[in-house]
Design a protein that fits this description.
Number of domains: 4
Largest sheet: 9 strands, mixed
Structural class: alpha/beta
Mean pLDDT: 92
CATH architecture of the largest domain: 3-Layer(aba) Sandwich
Shape: globular
Oligomer: single chain
């Protein structure tokens, strides 16, 4: 994860000790160098000789034995540079330079430029800083007694930042506990939990892009008597979805929702009935989750956003056709990019005037009055009528949500 987070900065340091351009190096050699430099410059408990030796051995095992002396020589040159954590500082970007912030925080410059333009330099700095840190593990308790059970199993918990049902893991691995295996908690970022809470209550509910199932489980827990259809495109993910949701039906006190997992394409939903609540948590670039998925920033290209937007538009239009009169649709992404968020909503509303936008601030205020939302500064969670969380600015991943109501 460290190598993925800091890849561009690692490469710039490797380049200072390499006589060959990095573009000429075989992937196995470059990967071994990155691993070693991260250990040399970012970690304190690994001896330099061990880091160098392991990377040389990796190159040999990758059948690149002839490159072993080269790797050894490059790394020994870099030892002189000492250690550093590589973290950007506020002073480093006092010039509001996207180039400087991108280089010091190991982000593609085109992404940083967009975030500065959309959210300002201070927020862009916080986003980049957050992306380079290990994110908090947040969980949602499906039963109140789960907290005592986790503590008995050696898990230290702290209250959530947003929701009364959320907890933050301070120490321990919840995945190793019997409580987790029993299905009475879900590992889920708090912004994701908040999106599911915005869906509200209904008798017939649809989750258009359901896997891996965290939001579906949240809908079921908050609507124990609802009939819920959970749609997933890929059969193997649908099987995992059923596995996650199955403990819900056999766990006493967790509710008795009738959840149907349907393998289908959300762009062509196979339902005749209408639903009073629809969630369209669509596939997206994931730029709001880079602390958890740092590989995204090296794979994503600017031109990918247009392709994603086209798919999101099709899914949203399909979902809108399933909403009953006076019903609601919640559209959400874990992207920071306008093309995938506001632009999608504005586009569909110009083509379908039978929907109106519901102000998310009103819904957040209602959730706070009901005791579900415990975050105080709810106005900071909105941008216009939409929910907008920013990693680093808020204690969670970056999420966008819009509430559309069928007139």
């Amino acid at each position: 994860m460290g190598v993925l987070r800091w890849r561009s900065l690692l490469d710039s340091q490797i380049a200072t000790g390499s006589a060959q351009p990095l573009s000429k190096l075989d992937p196995e050699i470059l990967t071994a160098l990155r691993l070693a430099v991260y250990q040399l410059r970012w970690l304190s408990r690994i001896p330099a000789r061990a880091a160098i030796n392991e990377s040389v051995e990796l190159v040999k095992r990758a059948r690149k034995r002839s490159a072993a002396p080269f790797v050894n020589a490059v790394l020994r040159k870099l030892i002189v540079g000492g250690s550093q954590d590589g973290a950007p500082t506020q002073h480093a970007i006092s010039d509001a330079s996207a180039e400087l912030l991108a280089a010091s925080s190991a982000h593609p410059q085109w992404l940083v430029e967009r975030w500065i333009a959309a959210y300002g330099v201070d927020s862009a700095f916080r986003i980049c800083q957050h992306n380079q840190s290990v994110p908090v593990t947040a969980i949602r308790l499906r039963r109140s007694e789960a907290e005592d059970q986790l503590r008995a199993e050696g898990i230290d918990l702290a209250p959530g930042a947003f929701l009364a049902s959320a907890r933050r893991v301070e120490h321990g691995d919840v995945t190793k506990t019997a409580t987790f295996r029993a299905g009475v908690l879900v590992i889920q970022d708090e912004a994701s939990q908040l999106v599911a809470t915005l869906v509200g209550h209904g008798a017939h509910m649809l989750d258009c892009c359901a896997a891996p199932g965290g939001k579906t489980a949240a809908l079921a827990d908050r609507n124990p008597n609802a009939k819920i259809a959970a749609v997933e495109l890929y059969s193997h993910r649908a099987r995992l979805l059923r596995k996650l949701l199955s403990p819900h039906d056999r766990t006493p006190g967790a509710g008795s929702s009738n959840i149907s997992v349907v393998t289908a394409d959300a762009r062509n939903l196979p339902f005749c009935q209408k639903f009073d609540r629809v969630l369209a948590d669509v596939p997206c670039s994931g730029t709001g989750t880079l602390s958890r998925n740092p590989e995204i920033k090296w794979r994503l290209k600017l031109e990918d956003l247009a392709d994603l937007q086209a798919r999101q538009l099709t899914i949203l239009q399909s979902a809108m056709a399933q909403v009953a009169p006076r019903g609601r649709l919640i559209y959400s992404t874990c992207s920071l990019e306008t093309e995938e968020n506001e632009d999608v909503i504005e586009r569909v509303l110009t083509e379908d005037v039978s929907f109106r936008v519901v102000d998310c601030l009103t819904e957040l205020d209602r959730l706070r009055q009901e005791g579900e939302l415990i975050f105080r500064d709810i106005s900071s969670l909105t941008r216009g009528p939409y929910l907008r969380t920013l990693p680093g600015v808020h204690p969670c991943d970056g999420f966008f949500a819009a509430i559309l109501e069928k007139i």
